Automatic annotation (TrEMBL):
<protein>
    <submittedName>
        <fullName>EAL domain-containing protein</fullName>
    </submittedName>
</protein>
<feature type="domain" description="EAL">
    <location>
        <begin position="24"/>
        <end position="274"/>
    </location>
</feature>
Length: 288
């Protein structure tokens, strides 16, 4: 089986796909085994309300806990999975893991929505969408999918139909990396998306750039006009957080609030968040 994966990775390489370095080919061969042997792990990064600073939801970000190479970031193996035909299995694994974690968090009293990143390669695939609907339709876990606009442009009719199916069974759709890829206002209008995530490209230098604040502000206004909530990703400084709050950005995510962390660390973060809120409420009731 590892040999077959290796061949597929080589084939992808011959076709001119980028993940063709010897290292990427070796990873592709191992990835199939890694999925079976549970070497993949989901880390979680909270999204918080900009004004209230309360946790709204969390994004699942995959890592590969490799026995020899250590923790491998998704940028190193997701393209390999896409080229080697493993992306559907990997994504189904991710959705199932996210459902289990959402239900576990709910049982601990933290019923927050968990967002999963869905590869653009899969968005137009109607058979894949049907499998996803079977899995998601069988649970009441609160889920969201993050998709990029570029992935919709690949095959707009099927992508939009599939996203609508997901939205119909209660999945919250978020548009990821907005502004960084191929953007089309025509598709933006048609997508059943409730959240727009502004790419960190425009956020990390927000307070030192002349143009980024203008772009960000008009994007926030556009999203609100389309009835979507806005999330800024890549919030690293208090100055950026303050400016985004003034601009009316609904939610923020970034290293300032929390890095992506294992599930147990997210639980600790949620407890602190709850305690902080409870003590604020106590203070408020004393001052009344
Ligand atoms: P993304 O979905 O846009 O995720 C945001 C990336 O920015 C994450 O990198 C996150 O760790 C990083 N980030 C978060 N806050 C900050 C910040 O304040 N500053 C900076 N400089 N970076 C920040 P990560 O985890 O390496 O993921 C990279 C990409 O890999 C993701 O981009 C997503 O497209 C993809 N990915 C991750 N997990 C999955 C998955 O389960 N399935 C699929 N198909 N793709 C995934
Ligand atoms: Mg919400
Ligand atoms: Mg994302
Ligand atoms: Mg993003």
């Amino acid at each position: 089986q590892a040999e077959a994966a290796l061949d597929r990775a080589r084939g992808a390489n011959a076709a001119g796909d980028p993940p063709g370095t010897p290292d990427a080919i070796a990873l592709g061969a191992e990835l199939a085994r890694a999925i079976d042997e549970n070497e993949l792990v989901l880390f979680y990064q909270p999204k918080v309300h900009a004004r209230r600073q309360e946790i709204d939801s969390a994004e699942a970000l995959i890592r590969w806990q490799h026995p020899v190479r250590g923790l491998i970031p998704p940028g190193d193996f997701i393209p390999v999975a896409e080229a080697g035909d493993l992306i559907d299995r990997l994504t189904l694994w991710t959705i199932e893991r996210a459902i289990a974690d959402q239900l576990a968090l709910r049982a601990m009293g933290h019923d927050l929505r968990i967002f999963v990143n869905i590869s653009g390669r899969l968005l137009g695939d109607t058979l894949f969408a049907a499998r996803v609907c079977d899995i998601v339709g069988a649970t009441d876990a609160k889920l969201g999918f993050e998709v990029t606009e570029t992935s919709v442009i690949r095959d707009p009719a099927s992508a939009i139909a599939n996203l609508q199916r997901f939205a119909d069974i209660g999945v919250c759709i978020a548009i990821d990396d907005y502004g960084a890829g191929l953007s089309s206002l025509a598709y933006l209008k048609q997508l059943p998306a409730r959240e727009l995530k502004i790419d960190k490209l425009f956020i990390t230098q927000l307070t030192s750039s002349n143009r980024d604040p203008l772009i960000v502000r008009s994007t926030i206004d556009l999203a609100h006009a389309l009835d979507m909530e806005v999330v800024a990703e890549g919030v690293e400084t208090h100055a950026a957080l303050a400016l985004l709050t003034v601009m009316g950005c609904d939610m923020v995510q970034g290293f300032l609030i929390s890095r992506p962390v294992p599930r147990d660390a997210l639980v600790a973060f949620l407890r602190e968040d709850g305690n902080r809120r409870a003590s604020m409420e106590t203070r408020l009731s004393f001052s009344r």
